[in-house]
Amino acid sequence: MSDTWIDTAVAIDNQSQLLCPRCGSFYLHHYDAVFYEPGKEDAESLVKISVKGMTVKTELVPTATSGNPSLRRDGFSMLFWCEQCGQDKPVELTISQHKGVSLMEWRLPPEGV
C-alpha cells in the first residue's frame, strides 16, 4: 500500500476478535499479505515477498520505496475488508519493529481515497 496511508491503533474485543478501525465491526476478511526482509538493519534494499491469491512474487526492492511498515527492520502487512464498510474500502494491518519493540497498527487510506 501507499506510504500516504495513515497509521492508527489496533483494537480487539473481549473475545480476541480483531475490530475494524473504521466502524468497530469484527466482520473482517483478510486477503493479500506482504513480507519485508531487509537481511540486516538499515539495508539499502530488501526482499519483498507478496502473496496475492495463489500468486507469490519475490523481488529485491529499494528499502525507501518498499512500503515496509518498519523503517529499519523486518515488517509484515495484510489487507482486510470489512463487511460493514464494504470491499471497496480496504484496511491494512501491519507488524513492524522499532528499537526492539514489535508494533501492530492499521494503515488507512487518507479521506477521499
Q: Structural class, judged by helices and strands?
A: mainly beta
Low-confidence stretches: none
The separation of the N and C termini measures 12 Å
User: Quick check: average pLDDT?
Assistant: 90
Q: Which H/E pattern describes the elements?
A: EEEEEEE
If strands are numbered along the chain, what order do they take across the biggest sheet? 1-7-6-5-2-3-4
What profile does the largest beta sheet have? 7 strands, antiparallel
Shape: globular
Radius of gyration from CA coordinates: 14 Å
- The number of helices is 0
Report helical residue fraction. under 10%
Describe what you observe in this structure.
The protein has a domain at 30-79 and 88-107. It contains no helices and seven strands. It has strands at 6-9, 28-37, 45-52, 55-62, 75-82, 86-98, 101-108. The chain has 113 residues and is mostly beta strands. Helices cover 0% and strands 52% of the residues.
What descriptive keywords fit this protein?
mainly beta, seven-stranded antiparallel beta sheet, 113 residues
Quick structural gist:
This protein is mainly beta. 0% of the residues lie in helices and 52% in strands.
Write the layout of secondary structure elements.
Blueprint: E1 6-9, E2 28-37, E3 45-52, E4 55-62, E5 75-82, E6 86-98, E7 101-108
Antiparallel strand pairs: 1-7, 2-3, 2-5, 3-4, 5-6, 6-7
